[in-house]
Specification:
The structure holds three protein chains of three kinds.
Chain A lengths: L8 H9 L2 H23 L4 H16 L2 H14 L2 E6 L2 H14 L4 E4 L3 H6 L1 H7 L3 E4 L2 H9 L15 H12 L7 H18 L2 E4 L3 E3 L4 E6 L3 H7 L3 E7 L3 E2 L5 H12 L7 E6 L12 E7 L3 H6 L14 H5 L1 H6 L10 H12 L16 H5 L6 H16 L2 H14 L2 H14 L4 H7 L12 H4 L4
Parallel strand pairs in A: 1-10, 2-3, 2-4, 4-7, 5-8, 7-10
Antiparallel strand pairs in A: 5-6, 6-9
Helix pairs in contact in A: 2-12, 3-12, 9-10, 16-18
Chain B lengths: L3 H4 L15 E4 L3 H6 L1 H13 L3 E3 L9 H6 L2 H16 L5 E4 L2 H13 L6 H11 E3 H8 L8 E9 L2 H6 L4 H8 L2 E6 L14 H4 L1 H18 L3 E4 L2 H13 L5 E4 H5 L6
Parallel strand pairs in B: 1-2, 1-3, 3-4, 5-6, 5-7, 7-8
Chain C lengths: L1 H13 L3 E5 L2 H12 L4 E3 L14 E5 L2 E3 L4 E5 L14 E7 L3 E2 L2 H9 L7 E5 L4 E2 L7 E2 L6 E7 L3
Parallel strand pairs in C: 1-11, 2-3, 3-6, 4-7, 6-11
Antiparallel strand pairs in C: 4-5, 5-8, 9-10
The chains are: A alpha/beta, B alpha/beta, C alpha/beta.
């Protein structure tokens, strides 16, 4: 089992750093994704303009989210969808379990959805006696391994082909192989059988269009198309922030999302689902249910600084760009949302006390802000959260240290005195010990610049 | 305000705005003051060499960044107010600092005093006058060559706040390329963080070191005698690891390089 | 127009699809089917039921539009009512009219809303199904088709 907690980030990170195989995989993945994103962005002459437009559209929605949600609900329902609103994870899970039970569902197929990971929907459905099968290849692998995802767009990034082969051999009876195509076709065959048996399909949502009531879901594998076409009931779960105003706005987002995520111009498939089928003879589900999840999002929305957290389109670019994520990977964050955006969202979703370490797990280098397709100022958000946490939850020693520091830095005589004291104490202070574990500490100068300065 | 457009027209040794008229207030930073005085000394020498008159207010201490970045905003404001008050008294044309990070902090002051009708305008005025050293030389004075010489192969590490908050990319490279005798090579992933991050390096020393080792590997691959950067903090991080590993590569602040006049 | 068809073809090929431009689509289709040497061919004009489709080797569909800059097929459920023919069989052959190719993503989005309500299911298809979930190694053909042929009828 590998379900870590955000509260133990420091220990999780230490374990990750000791895992040579994990670090090799992370290095390959983050540098490959990073380079592809860079090339894809450079191939569009108006990349910066697109980022600005995307953010403006998100800001437009977030400044009046209720209105856009109402418009979306009205248009989706007028075309046959049923919309449910869930205040929190428990409510969302109970709505979905209820719908599945009404249908006497035994087998449920799922396509990748961060929000259902957030609510731990699979546990709830399994507890209610249903079989839930993840159908995205990466999600399927980690479901079989009973592990959480380690990357927003590549959930099994931490696994080697040997590990996947062993897993498939044990769980699916596949003869061990080095051939990834062979593993993929084993998964295809096994999952086809589950698709054929499924009573309900559950998906996530990338964009929900207020103007038309349309759900837009993007993918490469085809499992989302199967999940949303074959079973007679389709349930889509989305965070309330997924709404965008107009169909035409997709032009901006469909350019930014795949390029930022995998470096593709477009992913292989985009499904645009607007209500239910018009003619009973058509293929496709009879019922479409949309679950709108709040789960702490209204709280983020209420504050002018944290509001921008909700502009995220879950592309994963900030993970690949982050020096901390590059070293420790996704599991260390103990959250379905890892990396820089995870360090911002997790404390807001789970409560600051459960993830108080995360906003400090950053060197504030700003690489995340540079690559974000919707220009979220992640360092600003991290600083905002730090300011929420430190004065109330910082250690007594730290709080005292900064009080003393402020006194010293506003008094020339104390400043001078402390610089003398520093020269004496530099080798015994705990701050020095943390530093000198792997680095030599430059000694404090015998004379400060203040001492050296003369006006000639 | 300085005319940045005019600055780009300047040729070496001729300034867009005559440096002789320029009075500069040096903000040396607490780190340089206590840990690396030669950066301060070199900054003064370089600024004087290009014709600036340099003043130094001995009441100065810190820009408030440690508290700001750790989330102690009340303490940060106390220290920032004092910085503003001291430098407001100066009649200098510009406040110049040999640190991208501390300059960026001063540029964050308006954010720190948002909604404060007394301090916000004062913070804005101070931020507008404060420049990082290479930006001041190239953008304000139009000086791309300060007459330095140093023999050897060297590379440049982009310190994060200088690069991303102040957009310093071409300025330091231009200055370095004009150092006589110096062979400049680009560092692989020059813009990647060195892992310092202030209190981050103390709160998470293992992660900080793991990030740092990527930087060290790149420096070793570059086959240089020196790695140059614009922030003493990054240089302490990088230099501390190089020293621990027994590397012969030396770390040098841009101000120190620009003050070199070796005849080797 | 020729340029646009060329751009479309180039884009389809850049995502591992095959693209044949012809004035005789029927003939090209026959040739492809003969080369593939397949037994069971499903057509969206006369589709099998949803569960039988799993036993077919090839699915043939039309597309209501296509995008030159990305090599994308646009399938609109108002015309293309059978979503599974283009998805489940290991080979998907799409036959499109050259005149329906638009230049950009933006053009295609505009078209979908023009003078009508948006159809319940619209699918964009760009190349065959793919994954890179194991060691980031690109593998073609996961849940959807392993091969995609696009026949562009340049006479229409």
């Amino acid at each position: 089992m590998n379900h870590l907690s955000s509260e133990t980030f420091k220990e999780n990170a230490r374990a990750a750093l000791a895992d040579v195989q994990l670090r090799g995989a992370l290095k390959n993945a983050t540098s490959l994704f990073g380079e592809r994103r860079k090339e894809a962005a450079a191939s569009l002459p108006n990349w910066e303009e697109l980022r600005t437009q995307a953010r403006a559209i998100k800001d437009e929605v977030l400044s009046d989210l209720d209105r856009y949600l109402k418009e979306f609900v009205r248009n989706a329902e007028s075309r046959g969808a049923v919309v449910h609103r869930a205040r929190d994870a428990a409510e969302a899970n109970s709505i979905i379990c209820g719908l599945a039970k009404e249908r006497n569902a035994r087998v449920i197929v799922k396509s990748k959805s961060m929000t259902t990971e957030e609510t731990h929907l699979n546990d709830a459905l399994e507890a209610a006696g249903m079989q839930v099968v993840e159908t995205d290849l990466g999600e399927y692998i980690i479901q079989l391994a009973n592990e959480p995802p380690s990357h927003i767009i590549a959930p099994a990034i931490h696994k080697t082909r040997q590990q996947v082969s062993e897993l498939f051999a044990t769980e699916l009876g596949m003869p061990p192989t080095d051939d990834i195509a062979q593993m993929t076709s084993t998964a295809r065959a096994t999952l086809r059988d589950r698709f054929a048996a499924a009573d309900v399909g559950i998906s996530g949502v990338n964009f929900a269009i207020a103007e038309t009531g349309t759900l837009v879901i993007v993918e490469n594998e085809g499992n989302i198309r199967l999940t949303t076409s074959l079973p007679r009931m389709h349930i889509a779960m989305m965070g309330i922030e997924k709404v965008i105003p107009r169909f035409a706005d997709l032009d901006v987002f469909l350019k930014l999302l795949p390029r930022s995520g995998t470096g593709q111009r477009l992913t292989t498939y985009q499904s645009f689902i607007t209500g239910t089928k018009r003619d009973a003879a058509d293929e496709g589900p009879d019922e479409l249910h949309i679950v709108l999840l709040d789960n702490g999002r209204s709280r983020m929305l209420a504050h002018p600084v944290t509001r921008q957290s909700l502009a995220c389109i879950r592309c994963g670019a900030c993970l690949n760009a982050c020096p901390v994520y590059q070293q420790v990977g996704g599991h260390a964050y103990g959250s379905v949302y890892p990396g820089p955006i995870g360090a911002v969202i997790t404390p807001q979703l789970m409560g600051i006390e459960k993830a108080a370490q995360l906003p400090f797990a950053s060197s504030l280098c700003g690489a995340c802000r540079d690559v974000c397709p919707v220009k979220i100022d992640i360092p600003q958000l991290l600083l905002h959260l730090r300011a929420e946490i430190s004065p109330r939850k910082g250690s007594t020693a730290e709080r005292l240290a900064f009080k003393v520091w402020a006194k010293v830095m506003t008094s020339p005589s104390l400043y001078k005195l402390s610089s003398i004291a520093g020269r004496i104490l530099q080798h015994v202070m705990p701050i020095s010990r943390a530093w000198t574990s792997g680095r030599d500490l430059r000694p404090i100068e015998s004379k400060s610049f203040h001492d050296l300065w003369s006006n000639d | 305000m300085w005319n940045a457009g005019a600055a780009t027209e300047g040729r070496p040794y001729s300034s867009a705005r005559s440096a002789n008229e320029m009075k500069v207030a040096l903000f040396v930073t607490c780190l340089v003051d206590q840990m690396w005085t030669s950066i301060g000394v070199s900054s003064v020498a370089v600024l004087r060499r290009v014709g600036c008159k340099v003043e130094f207010d001995k009441r100065q201490t810190c820009c408030a960044q440690p508290a700001f970045n750790t989330g102690y905003l009340d303490e940060a404001r106390v220290v920032a107010r004092r910085f503003i008050s001291i430098f407001e008294e100066s009649k200098a044309d510009a406040i110049v600092s040999p640190s991208g990070s501390c300059t960026a902090m001063v540029h964050h002051y308006p954010q720190l005093f948002a909604g404060d009708s007394e301090w916000l305008p004062r913070a804005q005025a101070i931020a507008a006058r404060t420049h990082e050293l290479s930006a001041f030389l190239v953008r304000v004075l139009g000086k791309e060559d300060v007459g330095a010489s140093w023999k050897g192969r060297l590379t440049w590490h982009d310190a994060c706040h200088g690069l991303r908050d102040l957009n310093l990319k071409s300025e330091p490279r231009t200055l370095i390329r004009n150092v006589r005798g110096a062979e400049f090579v680009e560092l692989e992933y020059a813009d990647a963080c060195c892992g310092f991050g202030g209190t981050f390096s103390v709160k998470y020393p293992e992660i900080s070191l793991a990030i740092l080792d990527q930087k060290i590997d790149a420096i070793e691959r570059a086959g240089v005698q020196a790695v140059v950067s614009g922030d003493a903090s990054c240089l302490m991080q990088i230099g501390g690891r190089l020293s621990r590993k027994g590397s012969k590569v030396r770390v040098m602040h841009l101000a120190e390089l620009l003050n070199e006049s070796s005849q080797q | 127009m020729t340029n646009r068809i060329d751009r479309f073809k180039e884009s389809v090929e850049s995502v591992a699809g095959h693209c044949i431009v012809t004035t005789d689509a029927t003939d090209v289709l026959k040739q492809i089917l003969a080369d593939l040497n397949v037994q069971r061919v499903a057509s969206s004009d006369n589709p099998p039921n949803a569960h039988d489709i799993f036993n077919f080797d090839v699915g043939i569909s039309s597309a209501q539009a296509a995008i030159a800059e990305t090599g994308t097929l646009v399938l609109d459920s108002a015309c293309e009512r059978h979503r599974l023919v283009s998805l489940v069989p290991p080979v998907h052959i799409a036959i499109i009219n050259a005149s329906t190719i638009v230049e950009t993503l933006s053009d295609a989005l505009t078209l979908l809303q023009k003078d009508k309500e948006i159809s319940p299911a619209i699918t964009f298809i760009t190349g065959p199904s793919r994954t890179a979930d194991i060691e980031l190694t690109l593998t073609i053909g996961v849940h959807g088709p392993q091969e995609l042929y696009v026949i562009v009828d340049s006479s229409k």
